[in-house]
Amino acid sequence: MKIKFCGAAKTVTGSQHLLEINGKKILLDCGLYQGKREEAYDMNKNFMFDPAEIHSVILSHAHIDHAGNLPMLVARGFKGSIYTTPATRDLCSLMLIDSAYVQEKDIEFVNKRRAKKNQPPFKALYTVDDAKNVLTMFKTVSYNKEFLIDGFGDELKVTFFDAGHILGSAQIVIEVKNGGKPFRLGFTGDLGRKNLPILKDPQFMGDVDYLLCESTYGGLYHEPADKIEEGLLETINEALKLKGKIIVPSFSVGRTQELIYEISKLNASGKLPKFQVYVDSPLSVNATAIFKMHPECFDEETYKLIASGVNVFGLDNVKYIKEVADSKKLNSTKQPCMIISASGMCEAGRILHHLANNIGNAKNTVMIIGYMAENTLGRQLVKASDKPGYKIKVFGEEHTVKAKIKILNSFSAHADSGETLEYLKQFDKGRIKKLFLVHGESPQQENLKMILDANGFKNIEIPARGDVFELS
After folding, report:
1. Do the strands 54-58 and 81-84 form a parallel or antiparallel pair, or are they unpaired?
2. Domain at 2-220+413-470, CATH from 3.30.565.10, 3.40.1280.10, 3.60.15.10, 3.30.70.260
3. Which of 24, 91, 191, 209 is the most buried (most CB within 10 A)?
4. Strand 170-176 vs strand 183-187: parallel, antiparallel, or unpaired?
5. Do the Cβ atoms of 45 and 125 come closer than 8 Å?
6. Is the dihedral of CA 368, 374, 380, 386 positive or negative?
7. pLDDT in tens, 161-178
8. pTM for the complete prediction?
9. CATH number given to 225-411
10. What whole-number distance in Å separates Cα of residue 236 and Cα of residue 272?
11. pLDDT tens, 62-93?
């Protein structure tokens, strides 16, 4: 058996790990690479393998950096099945079409400007029709139920374990028959944190012989999840005193629902004055409906709040916006408010328009509640947090950042260094033949490797894109 690292190798986006088992190829995740536009376009369009040769895809969760390039995979010849959890399938049915639609609209907007400058037009990576073609290929399995991949018989057994990252997110364990000596390969996907809003805590997947572990925050530490309320109260109250807007770039799935959940709790408890909250993302509106369809993923606190009558996905001061015209009206709103919009890393969608219209006003606040990958606009905003007068480009035009940038890392849905170590300590270290650190930038991966070395872990690899390893 071989594994080839085709994405999320020394970077946090574009998750793709290729397994070759007895002559057949299985892909773990098929995510979009996000970063510099031209580089990202080329990497997403040109796979490191022939899509027509892929037998099956096993998908960890619905975030675009893990699932977003499935339409291109299918358009380039993939005809197999995509295995995932029911909630992930339901979210993908929204997110993939939304991804295609946003690409088409953003390209249309950019091309109008390029035409005025006599520049050649860009083309969207894939279309809505491409995304629709993916939706018939899903096969769903719930957590903790061992299943077989079509065409492999009992030589390959797979189990999903709750990753606690977003709704439906899974860790993947693959048991491979290798002559008379089977071995287990584990993939954490994106590992969540204990005590986050709404979702259950991550499960332990059991001992494995090989492990692919995410390392997004490998050498960093978050504020505890129970600090979410404190940071949110402080940021909102400061912004309301300035009578400005709070602009929140947010992932439509997971982070938006968690933020609304926390605001709803604070409103219900009387700790927060009521103010208008706009969720300006059609995808967020529909994704919230899917959250309500999957209570099997909720933790006990969420069950208790629902039972007590709290609308955990929004009160009367939360307005969900779908129409473009209503989104544009927010530009002229003078009252203090919060605008939550996608994309989470500020690479596409309506958030770009809100940033362009509000980033230059010192009364406003941009609240960062998620990870911003290298070379994204979101990372530029993080850099602007301690650099007065920092300039960013939105739609190719320069803007001076005058708004306050507030970073609330207690919201992160990724395990930090200590939480990752706590999770990994559950494994039999002596059994792990190779521990691969993926889905992380090099500095954090090196830091995590040192921490793991100091705690007795051996045979740790940080694969680069294109690296191949033999597993047996």
Report:
1. parallel
2. 3.60.15.10
3. 91
4. antiparallel
5. yes
6. positive
7. 999 999 999 999 999 986
8. 0.84
9. 3.40.50.10890
10. 9
11. 999 999 999 999 999 999 999 999 999 999 99
